[in-house]
Structures are given as structure tokens and as C-alpha cells.
UniProtKB/TrEMBL annotation:
GO terms for biological process: carbohydrate metabolic process; tricarboxylic acid cycle. The keyword Acyltransferase applies. GO terms for molecular function: citrate synthase activity. This is Citrate synthase. Belongs to the citrate synthase family. The active site is at residues 261, 312. Keywords: Acyltransferase, Transferase, Tricarboxylic acid cycle. Pathway: Carbohydrate metabolism; tricarboxylic acid cycle; isocitrate from oxaloacetate: step 1/2.
Length: 369
């Protein structure tokens, strides 16, 4: 075995089939169950996209109504889950709070071990309905604010924002949020989805797989990058300082968060759609400084390294303009990606093989005491 036989990071390795989404770096496209994600973001609600990812087809009007009723019926924060969240110190990262809360939901579900298709869909829907309440409440308690109960006359995105901020924002903001979570919902065998599939492959339960996915998403090389982008923006300050900041950061061999991708080497298919949403927010909030800084860092990075932004680059400043705390950004990614994870968990369970690769030993030769 040579070094070239070892696929460090599994780069370029195809490990299974999936019918959930298709990432095509050659055409710079992303399809959810065959539909271009840009078309879904422009025309659909997050609820429609969740239904599509789980069931393979877009809902009829009647099916959508029923599906929305199920989410609205479960969106209030469960008392037991709230009690668990309240026990966690504010020093914990919100991703740790969310990971613990999801674990508590699993531990209190008497059907946690049941893995029929219907039961898995019910569990996935419960998490999808409950996670916004956890994320919203955690941000509020950190600000010293009380819990805002949900409103069942609002769609998923408007209600999420309402539970977080205590008011329904303008349509422009709800729309940009809806676009962001549709773009974040699914991306084939990324690290967190693969983690969820590995856990599922051992015949573990859906909640354990989602908890593992949250752990994998937290890292700065994956979902944690949207938070890290905002730290970068804060560090740079203004657009005129971006180039010098980048030179210094590259000289220190730092990774520039929100840039680069394992699969897309020529730009992330989702960035133009999310950048357009960011531009609308910049107009709505009258914050041209945000776009100037965005553009100057991107231009400097492309001209210096020819590395393009990934989805976390426009999402970070978009969530900042909406008023979310920086620490809440990656939990927002979880709220969206739980749909993709659970679609993959069900796909893995339906056609399972234990995931267990090999390694090449490079420790000491056999020796004896
Ligand atoms: C939604 C998402 O999860 S998208 C990903 C979010 N993550 C980030 O934004 C973190 C920053 N980006 C990165 O660290 C990387 O681009 C990754 C981890 C996303 C992809 O990494 P890989 O596919 O392993 O690319 P790899 O690390 O081989 O990069 C190739 C070269 O580009 C460099 N490079 C890649 N991305 C960056 C970056 N963001 N900043 C600086 N250099 C970079 C690497 O250092 C490497 O240089 P070298 O050949 O001189 O060693
Ligand atoms: O696909 C990846 O490796 C990371 C990513 O963009 C995502 O999970 O959305």
C-alpha cells in the first residue's frame, strides 16, 4: 500500500448511492430529488422542501396542509426540554445546548428505538418542529429575555423569527431566511450527514444519529464556518482593511473561513442565490458597509488564492443583519440540515451496510514485554 492508495479524508471516494440530492461541481448545480435548489428557493416554502426531501415528491395542496398542521401542532417548546436547556450554563456554546436538547428529546421518546418508516418520519418531523423553539429560546435566555410561545397562524420561517425576536419581521426578512434554510437543508455526503449515516449503519437510533450530526456540523471546517465568517468580519472592521487583513492571515497560515469546498473547486452552487438574498437584506436594512466588506474580502481572496466563497460566506452576514447573535448561526444551520440528515438516515436504514473502512497500520512493529 502506498500513500496514494490512502484516501485521506475520503477525498474523492464514492461510498454509496443516494437519491436525496445531487451535487455536481462540473455544472455547478445542486438538485434536491431532481429539482434545482435555486428553483426551490425561489418558489417554495421550507415546509414544501422538507416534505420533498423526506418523501421524494413535492406535496399536493392537501398534503401540504396536513404536513403544516403536524409541524404547527408540535412547535411549542416541550417543558422537559426547556428544563434541560435551563440547566445548561450560558458559557456553553449554543451548539452544545442544541445537541443536549436533541439528546433529551430522544431519551424521553418511548418509541426512540422503533425504526419503521412511519416512526422515523414522525421522529424527523418532531425534531424539525422542535429545533426552532430550542434555538430561539436559547438565544433569548442569553439576552435575559423570556420565552416567546409560537404562533400557529404563521409559516415555519415567520414563526421561527417571531419566537426568536418577539415580532414578525418584514416579508423581505422572512423571505431571505426561508431561502437560507432551503439552501442549507441538504448537501449529499457532507461530513455531518456522513456521520449520521455511519451511526445509523450500526442500527443505532435516529436521535443518536442526529446528535452525532450536530457534533460534526459544529466544527469550523463545516457548519461552524458561518459563525467564523462573522468573527472575521468583526476582526477586519471595514472594507478598506480587507486586503491587508488577508495578507496577514495567509502569512500566519490561517484558513479563511467561508472560502473553499471539498467538492466545488470553482464556486459553490448555492452562493449566487444566497448572495442575492443578502443583497436584498443590505438594501432593506440600509447597510451597504456589509456588502462592501463582503465584496472586498471575496475579491482579495480570489485574486490572492483563487479560492471562492462557500454558502457560509453570505449566510453569516445575512443572519447578522437579521439580528441573530453570531453564536446562533450554526444552530440555524442545524434547524435546516436536520431535514437532510433525517432523509439520509432513512435512506441508509432502508438499504443498510455497516460502514467500517480499513486503515493501514503505521505504528511500531510487533514487540513484546
Ligand atoms: C457549508 C459548509 O460546510 S462549506 C465548508 C465550510 N468551511 C469553511 O469555510 C472552512 C474554510 N475552508 C477550508 O478549510 C477548506 O476549503 C475545506 C475544509 C472546506 C475544504 O478543504 P479540502 O477539500 O480538504 O481542500 P484543501 O484543504 O485540500 O485545500 C487545497 C488548498 O487550498 C487551501 N485552502 C482551501 N481552503 C482554504 C481557505 N478557506 N483558506 C485558506 N486556504 C485554503 C489549502 O490550504 C490547500 O492549500 P495547500 O495545497 O497549499 O495545502
Ligand atoms: O458538502 C460539504 O462538504 C459541505 C457543505 O457544503 C454542506 O454540508 O452544505
Amino acid at each position: 500500500m502506498t500513500d496514494t492508495d490512502i484516501k485521506k479524508g475520503l477525498a474523492g471516494v464514492v461510498v454509496d448511492y443516494t437519491a436525496v440530492s445531487k451535487v455536481n461541481p462540473e455544472t455547478n448545480s445542486l438538485l434536491y430529488r431532481g429539482y434545482p435548489v435555486q428553483e426551490l428557493a425561489a418558489n417554495c416554502s421550507f415546509e414544501q422542501v422538507a416534505y420533498l426531501l423526506w418523501r421524494g415528491e413535492l406535496p399536493t395542496d392537501a398534503a401540504l396542509q396536513e404536513f403544516e398542521d403536524v409541524e404547527r401542532g408540535q412547535r411549542a417548546l416541550d417543558d422537559n426540554v426547556k428544563a434541560v436547556v435551563d440547566l445548561i450554563p450560558m458559557t456553553a456554546h449554543p451548539m452544545d445546548v442544541l445537541r443536549t436538547a436533541v439528546s433529551a428529546i430522544g431519551a424521553t421518546d418511548p418509541e426512540a428505538e422503533l425504526a419503521t418508516e412511519e416512526s422515523s418520519l414522525n421522529k424527523a418531523a418532531r425534531l424539525y418542529a422542535q429545533i426552532p423553539a430550542i434555538v430561539a429560546y436559547d438565544q433569548r435566555r442569553r439576552r435575559g429575555e423570556d420565552l416567546v410561545p409560537p404562533r400557529d397562524d404563521l409559516g415555519y420561517s415567520a414563526n421561527f423569527l417571531y419566537m426568536t425576536f418577539g415580532e414578525v419581521p418584514a416579508d423581505e426578512v422572512v423571505e431571505a431566511f426561508n431561502v437560507s434554510i432551503i439552501l442549507y437543508a441538504e448537501h449529499s455526503f457532507n461530513a455531518s450527514t456522513f456521520t449520521a449515516r455511519v451511526i445509523t449503519s450500526t442500527l443505532s437510533d435516529l436521535y443518536s444519529a442526529v446528535v452525532g450530526g450536530i457534533g460534526a456540523l459544529k466544527g469550523a471546517l463545516h457548519g461552524g464556518a458561518n459563525e467564523a465568517v462573522m468573527h472575521t468580519f468583526d476582526e477586519i472592521g471595514t472594507a478598506d482593511k480587507a486586503e491587508a487583513w488577508l495578507e496577514q492571515a495567509l502569512a500566519e497560515k490561517r484558513k479563511i473561513m467561508g472560502f473553499g469546498h471539498r467538492v466545488y473547486k470553482n464556486g459553490d452552487s448555492r452562493v449566487p442565490t444566497m448572495k442575492a438574498a443578502l443583497e436584498k437584506l443590505v438594501t432593506y436594512y440600509n447597510r451597504p458597509d456589509t456588502l462592501e466588506l463582503y465584496n472586498s474580502l471575496e475579491e482579495a481572496m480570489v485574486s490572492r488564492k483563487n479560492i471562492k466563497p462557500n454558502l457560509d460566506y453570505p449566510s453569516g452576514p445575512a443572519y447578522n443583519l437579521m439580528g441573530f447573535d453570531t453564536l446562533t448561526f450554526t444552530p440555524l444551520f442545524v434547524a435546516a440540515r436536520v431535514v437532510g440528515w433525517t432523509a439520509h438516515i432513512m435512506e441508509q436504514a432502508a438499504s443498510n451496510a455497516l460502514i467500517r473502512p480499513l486503515s493501514e497500520y503505521n505504528g511500531p512493529d510487533e514487540r513484546h514485554l
